Amino acid sequence: MAVKVSTKWLGEMRFESTNPSGHNLFIDAGEENGGKSEGYRPKALMLSGLAGCSGLDVAALIKKMKLDVDDFNIEIEANLTDEHPKYYDKVAMHFHFYGEHLNEKKLQRAVDLSIEKYCGVMEMFRQFSELSIETFFHPKST
User: Fold this and answer.
1) pTM score over 0.90
2) Per the UniProt record, which residue ranges are transmembrane (predicted)?
3) Is the C or the N end of the chain the one with fewer CB within 10 Å?
């Protein structure tokens, strides 16, 4: 299946990119690199893509497994190499689940299925990064 993305230069260091869903996003460099910080940075956007890919998997599995989760989020910290071309050589991904009735075993299974089987972006990152993934459960306090 071919995927097409169209990215148009808007002048200076700013671009507008349209993806297959028809939604647009803006990409720009920081002021230190001649931009105006009016858009996403490309490398950070890759991390958002990783979190979004796995997050969509986990959200679908939460629904399918009928799990009681009040909220969850994914935090990513990544190390950028010093030499050009700079890339993320280490990526730490933390899944945080919140709720009063968390089924930790099933939620961990949902995370595991995403990272081991479903998330294609995760597989792409495996080609160039050392990944560490942790899951945290936060029961609602009274």
Assistant:
1) yes
2) none
3) N
